[in-house]
Design goal:
404 residues, Rossmann fold, 2 domains, globular
Length: 404
């Protein structure tokens, strides 16, 4: 009996150190795909290992997949003059990659899929309305310069999707109101974390891990660690985070920055300007397993973003027993309980510093069990398997209807 085929479209190589929640979510979808499905990924390749424009058998996270690299992308953590999404969309044009299910994580590539047959799903990862209106770097998202053109393109392309799924409830409502003709296809979807990688330690193990990290970095053994992880991109506003850490002004606290991106040099300059070189460590892009170790031993995870959906890294931190400090953006403020994190009402260094101080100096108010409990409904074991179960039911129903 033929298996249903899921084809995932996104501009990355899952075997490379690629930073971002979309990449992580796709990896989870591949890892937790049930054996009843054939999974294909259309991404970017490595010229030494993967010839472009040829389907090839591959393995990821113990799962066999078919992989089609469209072109070579050296490092997707940095933006190039020509946006990667444009290159990816252009490479798809003129191809026919229909399958039973097609998952798109960017709108633009679906332009190539207009005549492809199959169930198409668009995943919305950010609050696009806030994203378009956000102040600051106009290069953060190219479409911000041409909002009318973006929404005109979106109005055309959303009609082809069987489902439009957002991890942000406000964004889902925005799409229902903006596109009433497809409002019944718009829904909320939980982002999820890999519960086999992100889990808590005992308090003794956490304390031992913190001491080992402090010794490794040449710091006092009682150092308290603040963790940020993500792309160094204007959306995440890491410069605001550096200024907030300076405002915290606590000699026994250390900021760890895991990630890379176009703002790396600017961040290093700001760290030097504020005299924080001995109190901030930039780790660069690290493997997911290494990030999980940091989540398990840090005292708090912090987000200073201008706009978000529901960052997977928040779920990963909570699942590891680590409380959150976040700006008021995206779905995170709706997710957090009073005993699993603090939401900053103002995007200022002083407000973020106060929240960090509140969490770090009073850990008893943010117990591990509360953090883990907040994340638990989002575990991949339940969320992803439920999605695949519903996909399989729809496919079987469609097959039965065709036969009858």
């Amino acid at each position: 009996m033929r298996k249903p085929v899921l084809t995932i479209f996104y501009q990355f190589n899952p075997w490379n150190a690629s930073i971002g929640g979309i990449q992580t979510l796709i990896k989870i979808f591949i890892k937790h795909a049930p054996p009843e499905f054939e999974v294909r990924l259309v991404g970017t390749g490595d010229p030494e290992l993967q010839p472009n424009l040829k389907w090839q058998a591959a393995e990821f996270a113990g799962r066999e997949i078919s992989f089609l690299p469209l072109f070579y992308l050296k490092d997707d953590n940095f933006r190039s003059f020509i946006p990667t999404t444009v290159k990816y969309t252009t490479a798809l044009l003129g191809r026919y990659l229909s399958s039973d299910f097609m998952h798109f994580h960017r709108l633009e590539p679906s332009l190539a899929a207009w005549n492809w047959q199959g169930e198409k799903t668009l995943f919305i990862h950010n609050d696009i309305h806030t994203q378009m209106q956000a102040a600051g770097d106009q290069k953060a998202i190219l479409w911000r310069r041409f909002p009318q053109a973006y929404f005109a393109l979106e109005n055309l392309l959303v009609r082809q999707f069987s489902q439009i799924l957002s991890c942000h409830t406000d964004a889902a409502e925005f799409y229902r109101q903006r596109y009433p003709s497809v409002k019944n296809r718009v829904g909320y979807i939980k982002n999820s974390f890999d519960n086999e990688i992100f889990y808590p330690l005992s308090q003794a193990q956490r304390d031992a891990g913190r001491r080992q990290l402090a010794i490794k970095l040449g710091l006092d053994e009682e150092t308290r660690f603040i963790l940020f992880a993500g792309r160094l991109h204007p959306q995440k506003d890491p410069i605001l985070l550096i200024r907030a850490f300076a405002a915290l002004n606590h000699p026994n606290m250390h900021l760890l920055i895991a990630g890379d991106g176009e703002l790396a040099s600017e961040i290093r300059t700001e760290i030097g300007r504020l005299g924080l070189s001995d109190r901030v460590t930039m780790l660069g892009a690290i493997a997911l397993e290494e990030l999980a170790k940091l989540h398990r031993i840090c005292h708090v995870f912090v987000l200073s973003s201008a706009y978000e959906g529901l960052p997977l890294v928040v779920l990963e931190a909570l699942a590891s027993g680590t409380p959150i400090v976040t700006t008021r953006c995206g779905e995170t403020p709706k997710l957090l309980a009073t005993d699993s994190g603090v939401v900053c009402e103002q995007r200022t260094p002083e407000c973020i510093a106060d929240a960090l101080r509140q969490v770090i100096l009073h850990p008893e108010n943010y117990p591990v069990a509360s953090c883990v409990g907040t994340a638990q409904p989002y575990s991949a074991r339940t969320v992803i398997r439920d999605i695949y179960s519903k996909m399989l039911s729809r496919w079987e129903l469609a097959g039965n209807l065709a036969v009858s």
